[in-house]
Amino acid sequence: MAQIFVIGIGGTGMRCIEAFTHLCAIGMFDNTDVHLLALDTDKDNGNFTRLKNLKEAYIKTKGVNKKQFALQDTFFSANLHYYQFSPDYSRQSTFDILYDYSQTKRNDPNKSSIADLLFTDNAKEFDLKHGYRAQTHLGSMLMYHSILAEAEDSDVTNLKGEGGKTGNIKGFIDELANACQSGSPRVFILGSIFGGTGASSIPIIPKALIEGAKKMGVAIDLSTAYFGATLLTSYFSFPSPNATDLANQKVIATSDKFALNSQAAMMFYEVDETVKKTYQRFYMMGTEAMERVRSGGAVVEGKTITGGKDQANDSHYIELLSAFAAWDFFNSTDEDLSHLKEKRKLEYLYRTFDDNGKITFEDFVGSEKKTEFAKRLGMFTAMSYLILLDKYDFFGQAQRGELTRVKIEGYNDILKDETDALNHFMSLAHFAVVGEAVQDGWLRQIHRSAGGGDKFLLGAGVFGCNSKRECGNFDFNKELFQRGSEFESNKFSTGLLGGSIYDSFVKKFITIDEPANITNKCEKLIKRTYDTLCQLYNFKS
Known about the structure:
23 helices
């Protein structure tokens, strides 16, 4: 069984881990134990909260108060272990307070002179609770020492992130240490290089993990580990803050500086010896900036939002591309990565899209794996309709023993908490019906960021239903994939007289054997549904 380690840093990193979790849900990381560390200074950030809700729904779907396992050829196949870390700036919220700068300047001016050289007065005084605000030189120092202080704290329980629990960074370090002792673990870091927290942390994370392990009394030998990361350049913009907000906040990141910030970060990574000898691969990516209504620093109802619960930005397809960068890294051969490590060579990888305006499965995974990605995402999307729409409510009916016309037994002992969690995950992944309206989930958000219409992976109709009635009338069987794509013909027959999609599904479902090697009933039903859809849509299960 594979074991991989993923770290998301900052607000962009949270959305990238969100995309990565959706890849786990559709089954792109079969038979894999995934250790996810969410690292951000802003623990109340809206995207951070959305990620926590997503992972909780994922874990509960795999079993409430049950031992969880990685599976093969099904949805939710990866076994997630979730950890998080946020430096505590609730009491000491500025550089000045953290390091008692004002007192030091009065008592020993010589000691404060280096801080005066490196940091402006505003940088010493702004509130750190909402992140480092593009002050990467300050952020690198603060994040590094925060991780070391957390690792040294003997009062922090060393949770492993299992059984629905949230682990801490000490648990993550401990698991990485164990993996290093038995092989060559792979660690991938997701974050941006144009803002504050991500750009600050990418250079120092490997060293912070090593030194943190020493504080814990554990030695991690990095010579056995491989490191990769995204270098995600600016892909959104927002209005500049007004003078009043700037005066109150001291420092606010502005999107007009993002391109310059990205350039400066890349120049540093290229020459820094610690970065060059630690990382094997950097994945460069970016796209034209689109205006984001609620990005960090955006003006919402006359107020500048620098973080907190109101900073809940929509997802973007570039974050899915970042998640697939991690997928590529974890699927690279040991030979390729060991060669890069031995030569101390840092490899930069890029991917470009066709200029026809359409984004296809091949754009994310290449020609060899495009069918696998199409199958996983397509079948997962089809299952979402069976779960989310009241006219189907397949999992709910199976759990209650209320299936009409054809009686399917053996699932009424599934815990309602598990089917509720599955329903919640699907609503976050695709859409939620609230009254007569439809709220966009992750998939619809990234479709919109790609230009809408028939430009992104699936058929335009998948994203065009904006009411409960429209969703109920949508023929997801016939319009699942893009028109003109090689997968457009992947659909199933509903009979000569145009019978029901649901009847055709149930008729096929009862012919599919229940998996014998899965113990949790909810996962059994998911696997059987997966196999049913694969056969109906002419994919190998």
